[in-house]
């Protein structure tokens, strides 16, 4: 995470339903040792509270496109996936 120091990072492990499983406090533990499985998420927050105000994206000018407009594009990721028969699931190579 850019903008916060390691000392102020707080890591939490959540299951696929976003329920908190545990705080991740062992800096030397591997993902396997932590028992992380497919679908779980690691949440990173700033315990200092200094970065939160800078994460407000309402001040950022964005480009929006409707789903219908995106569907019309021939050079999009969606179009590429359709051409190559790739579904939404991650393919293990």
From TrEMBL:
InterPro entries the UniProt entry points to: Ubiquitin-like_dom, Ubiquitin-like_domsf
Pfam family, one: Ubiquitin_2
SUPFAM superfamilies per UniProt: Ubiquitin-like
Ubiquitin-like domain mapped to chain residues: 1-49
Domain of life, source organism: Eukaryota
Protein name listed in UniProt: CAP-Gly domain-containing protein
